[in-house]
Amino acid sequence: MIKFVLDPKTGAPFYRQIIDQIKFGIASGKLAVGEQLPTVRSLAVELKVNLNTVAKAYKELEIQNILETYQGTGTFINKSEINLSDKEKQNKIQDICREFLTIAFNYGFTVDDLILELQNHKNNEN
């Protein structure tokens, strides 16, 4: 299961952020076919958003045949193969970098500081 996180600073509607997180969760293998998602009510409470926000995200993913909802049972991942286009991936990495840079620059870090830390992080992973 993935941990849903909404960020009001991105400018993207919350329902779109939920959709993106589910799609990226499937694409990365963190969500598998048949895996049950939280109920609309429980996810809305967890994220502190209106029920309709979560319902809209789930409904859009059902239309795309990515999710399947069974009355009284729950909502499940229906499709394991999500092929994100290069454009979608590029847009997502640009959004992540833009947010990352804004935060880092607000704390006074330079690009060189960030590159050094990313290199250290990469070296520590291996």
How would you describe this protein?
- By secondary structure, the protein is mainly alpha-helical.
- The protein has two domains: 8-77, Winged helix-like DNA-binding domain superfamily/Winged helix DNA-binding domain (Arc Repressor Mutant, subunit A); 86-125, no CATH class.
- The protein is 57% helix and 8% strand.
- The chain has five helices and three strands, in the order αβααββαα.
- Strands 1-3-2 form a three-stranded antiparallel sheet.
- A hairpin with a 3-residue loop joins β2 (67-70) and β3.
- α1 (14-28) crosses α3 (51-63) and α2 packs across α3 (51-63).
- It starts with 13 loop residues before the first helix and ends with a helix.
Average pLDDT value? Answer: 91
Number of domains: 2
Low-pLDDT stretches: none
* CATH homologous group name of the largest domain: Winged helix-like DNA-binding domain superfamily/Winged helix DNA-binding domain
Order of helices and strands: HEHHEEHH
CATH topology of the largest domain: Arc Repressor Mutant, subunit A
Residue share in helix: 55-70%
Q: Decide which structural class fits the backbone.
A: mainly alpha
- Report the span from N to C terminus: 25 Å
What's the count of strands? Answer: 3
Q: What profile does the largest beta sheet have?
A: 3 strands, antiparallel
